[in-house]
Amino acid sequence: MRTDSRLSRVLHILLHLARQPDHPMTSDQIAAMLNTNAAVIRRTMAGLRKSGYVSSEKGHGGGWSIACDFSTITLLDIYHAVGSPQLFAIGFEQHEPNCVVEQTVNHSLDDTLQQAKNLILERFKTISLANLNDDFIQRYCAAIQ
């Protein structure tokens, strides 16, 4: 099963946008950076714009810009803005809902996966975009030394 990289790609974009607050990036520029199509970028960024995290301007000099305070937005906020993608590729079968073995397996898997999902989402609440930006700056400074 293919992984869903929307969350990591959007976070990547946001950190790049934060590097140049006075120079919006076009969908074409972002698409080239991420090796994808500009239409995919526009579709992905639409949820962020709707949530007020980014803005976009058309025409010459236009593009995508940060429209929020990084310290108030968490990974959970961004996760929801990109459509709350599936966190896990594993799941369970429901071919024989009356089968007690299947019920047992599904209950165990469902309970375990739900607990894991809750842990991840709770952790997402604690990480702000400012935290990511600070981590990037530290890593960048260490890399250029």
TrEMBL record:
Pfam families the UniProt entry points to: Rrf2 (PF02082)
Q: Where is the signal peptide?
A: none
Matching entries from Gene3D superfamilies are given as:
Winged helix-like DNA-binding domain superfamily/Winged helix DNA-binding domain
Any idea which GO molecular function terms this record carries?
A: DNA-binding transcription factor activity
Q: Name one GO cellular component term.
A: cytosol
Could you tell me which InterPro entries the record lists for this protein? Tscrpt_reg_Rrf2 (IPR000944), WH-like_DNA-bd_sf (IPR036388), WH_DNA-bd_sf (IPR036390)
Q: Which PANTHER family match?
A: HTH-TYPE TRANSCRIPTIONAL REGULATOR YWGB-RELATED (PTHR33221:SF15), WINGED HELIX-TURN-HELIX TRANSCRIPTIONAL REGULATOR, RRF2 FAMILY (PTHR33221)
Output this protein's name. Helix-turn-helix domain-containing protein
